[in-house]
Amino acid sequence: MAVPIEGEPVQIHSYKHNGHIHRVWEESTILKGTQNLIIGANDRTMVTESDGRTWITREPAICYFHSQYWFNIIGMLREDGVYYYCNLSSPFIYDGEAVKYIDYDLDIKVFPDMTFNLLDEDEYERHRQEMRYPTPIDKILWANVDKLIFLIRQRKGPFAPDFVDGWYERYLTYRR
């Protein structure tokens, strides 16, 4: 697997289990790229939905992808603190073109006070049946929901107090 170069702009492609494109982030700057971990950042980047609609992100965000975890995490820097959006997903791949993953519907939204909500369970259940998610994937995803909740409660990994701010400072050095 290719490894993205620090400072390099890349796209992020989200797919659904059936192989259809779900969403594309036009440009994120790689802050760290290894076989196991990608940390990227973007600010006011264009996002294209599967139906062709586009929108622009509203705030700076730090994106965390890991090859061993079935989730990715977006830390959004807002005036009142860092909000996190956690997507239950396949581990990432990077093919030299884009960071790619399969989105499995379940999400966890985390607020600056570290309270959180599990979202989209109904969408997950509908897609699980429609796209026939295999039972092993279903079990892996729910185990990774538990892993995320543990990291949130323990304030570990991307949820550590200075994680997002520290990577955002690095991102600003590429924007100058």
From TrEMBL:
Its cofactor is Mg(2+). The keyword Ribosomal protein does not apply. Belongs to the Ntdp family. The active site is at 23 (proton donor). It is an enzyme of class 3 (hydrolase). Signal peptide: none annotated. The lineage of its organism: Bacteria, Bacillati, Bacillota, Bacilli, Bacillales. It comes from Cytobacillus kochii. Keywords: Hydrolase, Magnesium, Metal-binding. Gene3D superfamilies: FomD-like. Pfam families: DUF402. Its EC number is 3.6.1.15, 3.6.1.6. The keyword Hydrolase applies. Residues 18-156 form the DUF402 domain. This is Nucleoside triphosphate/diphosphate phosphatase. Has nucleoside phosphatase activity towards nucleoside triphosphates and nucleoside diphosphates. Mg(2+) 1 binds at residues 87, 103, 107. GO terms for molecular function: magnesium ion binding; nucleoside diphosphate phosphatase activity; ribonucleoside triphosphate phosphatase activity.
